Amino acid sequence: MADIATIDAAAAPLSDEAARATQRLHRAIMIGLAVALVIAPFVAYPVFVMKVLCFALFALAFNLLLGYGGLLSFGHAAYFGMASYVCAYVAKNWGLTPELSILLGTVVAAGLGALFGALAIRRQGIYFAMITLALAQMVFFFSLQTPRFTGGEDGIQAVPRGRLFGVIDLADDRTLYWLVAAIFMAGLLAIYRIIHSPFGQVCKAIRDNEPRAISLGYRANQYKLAVFVLSAALAGLAGSTKAIVFQLASLTDVHWSMSGEVVLMTLVGGLGTVFGPIAGAIVIVSMQNYLASLGAWVTVVQGVIFVICVLTFREGIVGVISKWIKKPL
Amino acid sequence: MFELLGIPPQALFGQVLLGLINGSFYAILSLGLAVIFGLLNIINFSHGAQYMMGAFVAWMCLNYLGINYWAALLIAPLIVGVTGVAIERLLLKRIAHVDHLYGLLLTFGLALIIQGLFRNQYGSSGLPYQIPAELRGGQNLGFMFLPYYRGWVVVASLVVCLATWFLIEKTRLGAYLRAATENPTLTQAFGINVPLLVTLTYGFGVALAGFAGVLAAPIYSVNPNMGADLIIVVFAVVVIGGMGSILGAIVTGFSLGVIEGLTKVFYPEASATVIFIIMVLVLLVRPAGLFGRAA
Amino acid sequence: MKLKTFLTTTAFAALLAAPALAQQISIKAGVLNDRSGLYADLSGEGSVIAARMAVEDFKAADKGIKVEIVSADHQNKPDVGSTIARTWYDQDGVDLILDVPTSSVALAVHQITKEKNKIHINSGAASSDITGKLCTPNTVHWTYDTYALAQGTGGAMVKAGGDTWFFMTADYAFGHALERDTAAIVTKNGGKVLGAVRTPFPGTDFSSFLLQAQASKAKVIGLANAGGDTINSIKQAGEFGIVAGGQKLAGLLVFLTDVHSLGLATAQGLVLTESFYWDTNDQTRGWSERFAKANGGKKPTMVQAGVYSGMLHYLKAVEAAKSKDTAAVMAKMKELPTDDPLFGKGTVRADGRKMHDMYLFEVKKPAESKGPWDYYKQIAVLPAEQAFRPLADGDCPLVKK
Predict the structure, then answer these.
(1) Mind telling me how many Å the CA of A308 is from chain B's nearest CA?
(2) Which residue in C36, C176, C199, C207 has the most chain B C-beta atoms within 10 A of its own C-beta, making it the best mutation to test that interface?
(3) Closest Cα to residue A40, out of A163, A191, A213, A184?
(4) Which of A191, B1, B58, C294 has the greatest number of beta carbons closer than 10 A?
(5) Is the pLDDT of residue A4 over 70?
(6) What is the distance in angstroms between the Cα of B264 and the nearest Cα belonging to chain C?
(7) Alpha carbons C225 and A153: distance in angstroms, whole number
(8) Domains along the sequence of chain C with CATH
């Protein structure tokens, strides 16, 4: 993954002073994001903003694996979708409160991630991508063939939003919005923390040069698996939240085209940048919304964006900005 | 007469034969992927879309130009191959120097574009394409009714697969190709035009997909999504076989078709997933794939 | 969300032409369906055209009703569909949503419509739960449902002598439901189900299952699947000489556009149930001709016809209620009999089920067809009362009281 690494390798030999400046910048962006989150529901339609946030979190999770683990998964829909099924199922059939449902969805996604991750990290690069895709397709067929659990092609409909902690009624879009915004911020901060922890540094070292990391005594596979599980869990968090927001879980969430979409978001926003996936999610989700009436052209436009990004815009939006201001974002 | 798990042996034999027919498609498609991967080191995600193009070109030949199936069997792969050459020259060439995963992403984008364009033009419900008159009807083999066309599919794909194998393993051109796969720089130094070889290889690989598309047109629904789901199964086939050898891709393709066919008799519910399950098992035992060289 | 907007009638015309009505009612109708995927041909833009034709034919403007029609693509994804529905209701002031094929999306829109207390007239979806255990006071299910399809094809085929059945069932909930409903009706009418096989969904190769069906020697092979699966299985059945061998194929969910895409040579002899066929009488022919002119020569499917008929009835109810208040309009829709050139006379039942006759068709041989789109010959008519599930059996909470 040499090419993907260049973006933040450019910023690697930073002095302490520069590192602190970067940290200050990141903190400022975080605060800016938080402010934007507070204003957003008064400016835009809250359901739309929530959708963007769910996908942004999903893309962030995916980017954790690709940008910092160097592993391109083409099957992230499996964790996203499975979590959304579990969350919807327990909220509807067991009557669990939303926070417990979301938690349970996340845990199941992490478990699935551990299982699939253990298999997939046996191969690298392109094989890894194909294996994750094939495994995710198995999850799709499982979801399709177990209507008792997933509702088959009808999905799990009319999931109750319920009461947060059994107290706060989430039926109102605005109230729910604060929960989603909080989950998103928590997810973002967690990812930021992971990337900048010693664990994250080792992951980057493995990504850049696996044999060397191994020779330094790191068990590369364990690190890879750990970052895979973390990524799956966060994708699951996003999927669970989406199930509560839209009050449904469906086959769309486990289909391979969903895996493709999250790759696209990350690519557009900027692979291996902290904030890129957020930008990518905003662009792609808005595009899908505004172009909804174009029908099949949406697919074509997405394909064209893919091609253009790969050919001429590999750094993505945030990657380009990062180059301008010569600071990692 | 003995029965195996409640299935009479004749029926079983029939199903094996049918499995072989499905395996033909897996074999041609995974062969194309393997050929492309060998030289370009990318996984051609648009392979499914190019397979679909093959079927559509056959349909267009018939409906716009009045070209029959037999001619389309030659023309359609040629046209798909030419578009492949254009794709390689205009797009893939530009990203040859960066990580090969970008090749996967680029071809994924191409697949979206191709499918979207065909959907806009022809809708999603599919187009009619008849079995050529010469191959209508069938033969009662005693244990099953074999439509002539199905028999033709097996024969045609076997011939194409073996011809490809021969071309790559036994001819001078194939030797250049194998040399370029091993060490492109050195091969170039010997005066062989490697970039041209790369372009032609990609064109040939997608032409194989186009050929499979024409074969499929009379028996499967000709619609823009026909390749999208198939390609994921073919990826699993490729992972199982490993991409080390041409013969490996062919053998794996046919045998997985048979296994899938048998699953349809014994436990049809699992027939959609059986190939993925085998993939998991192979990964556990032999991560490099059955015919693959260790990475 | 900026969605393509069609201004069908102008306010000017209404102001000039309708001095009798004191207040003007303005309505915004949303046609939500598949415009890019598998169902784009049978619903899609054609449904929008049909809705627009309903507004024209009703002469809404002359009656002081201003109608605006918006449309969007739900891509067969429930989350996309529900986002659009919410935005339409919350932000864009849409009063009713029409069409919505694909059961998963339909059920989502169905729930949101109830939550927001608006109106949903469904034409495209098949699930009989919409007027069954999930029924709401806000939805009318117009064109067909799985029960009626099973009743039509299952019941009528047995009566016509096809008394032994083998099912090829797509292995997902919809396929299972179709098989279950049809099998029940086959047995009830004295037929016998010899066996069934579950085919992976979505599937491309059905030859192995067709051989099993052939070996069963059943007189009728029931195809409990839809879309590409149906097309593939019919195509391959032709190849294995199933119909030529004397077995009949019964499509449990086949649309006119599917037959169009198969071609008569392949589809001939297929038996299926629909609630509308363009070539039924002078009125349907006349309307369909106008429709085809606006739709690039393609004849209407029953789903598109249902959108027209539903929109027309809604407008009548608005006129009668003199308001667009949901409760008042729904009450009028259920109170007034329906009458239009496409479905004839009918009613809307308390559970939201639109009642009309269903027809059993057989696909013509190529030699019998006089031209493009001349595909069906009618075998039987099922009166509405027989075709649709009896009110008491649906478990609809609105009915029990």
Answers:
(1) 9
(2) C207
(3) A184
(4) B58
(5) no
(6) 7
(7) 13
(8) 5-144+280-350 (3.40.50.2300), 148-274+358-381 (3.40.50.2300)
